[in-house]
Amino acid sequence: MNWAEFFNMGGYAFHVWTSYLLAAVILGLNVWLPLRKFRTQQKKIRQQHETTS
Amino acid sequence: MLPWFAWLCALTLAAGLYLGLFVAPPDYQQGETVRIMFIHVPAAWMSMFIYATMAGAAAVGLVWKIKLTDTFIACAAPIGASFTLLALVTGSIWGKPMWGTWWVWDARLTSELILLFLYLGFMSLQSAIDDPRRAARAGAVLVLVGVINLPVIHYSVEWWNTLHQPASVARIDGPRIHSSILIPLLVMMGAFKLFFISVVLLRMRSDILENEADSRWLKEQGA
């Protein structure tokens, strides 16, 4: 398979890749934001434990 | 349980992307833009599926007053909203070269936009009410009222004369599209469902931790 042809998407490269990029961004944010929240929470709980114990 | 869903999701997503981008042939009318459909259609299905699960949870929560359903609804809403946004924008990107316009006020597009506003309305309602129990109740009622929009979205292409094409997969007489397109669509659908389960579990874990944290700290201080 020809990669240049693949990325060109029959002349619709902009439309196809923008869609996939957008999907990647939206799915990525949906993972990253809750993960970040969970990590800061865990850090907070650990600190709490250290100060109380 | 969460890692299992996450890994399964990653695998299905990889398979779906491979099938959608490399295996599926270009459509004879749409050309390569048909590949946008592997994102657009599953995202649109998810936007409705997530809302339906939220409405189910809202009904259960209102009747039996279970706290967990409130957590679920609150966690599912932003994910549903993002899938709705994804469906709308990818549809728009596909519509420009294929229909010649980014947007038309056709019944399908408008009702999907209303779905986005329902999600956003629910989320702003949640953050506007301070008392969590009242916020959950009001939110559940809003979700239940908004459920009328789901059949409107689904049947909009039949009830009105729309630019959006009628259903080609969820039909009583079976899907009308070729398996080379249908299989990647269904695989992507599975991947998005697994994604939703993983992410909603991730969010719920945080929320439950937050709710329980107070009680645990209180106990520790009392001891």
Structural summary, described in words:
The complex is a heterodimer of chains A (53) and B (223). Chain A has 53 residues and is an all-alpha fold. Chain A contains two helices and no strands. The longest helix of chain A is centred in the middle third of the chain and has 40 residues, at 13-52. Chain B is built from seven helices and no strands. By secondary structure, chain B is an all-alpha fold. The model of chain B has no long low-confidence stretch (mean pLDDT 84). Chain B has a domain at 38-162 and 178-203. The A-B interface holds A 1, 6, 9-12, 15-16, 18-20, 22-23, 26-27, 29-31, 34-35, 37-38, 41, 45, 48, 52 and B 21-22, 26, 31-33, 35-36, 39-40, 43, 78-79, 82-83, 85-86, 89-90, 93-94, 96-97, 195, 199, 202-203, 205-206, 209-210, 213, 217, 220-221.
List keywords for this structure.
heterodimer, A: mainly alpha, 2 helices, 87% helix, B: mainly alpha
Mean pLDDT across the residues of chain A is 83
Q: What's the gyration radius of chain A in Å? A: 21 Å
- What does the largest sheet of chain B look like? none
> What summary fits the major beta sheet of chain A?
none
The largest inter-chain interface, given as chain pair and residues per side, is: A-B, 26 and 35 residues
Helical amount among residues of chain A, as a percent range?
A: over 70%
Strand content of chain B: under 5%
User: Structural class from helices and strands of chain B?
Assistant: mainly alpha
Number of DSSP E strands of chain B: 0
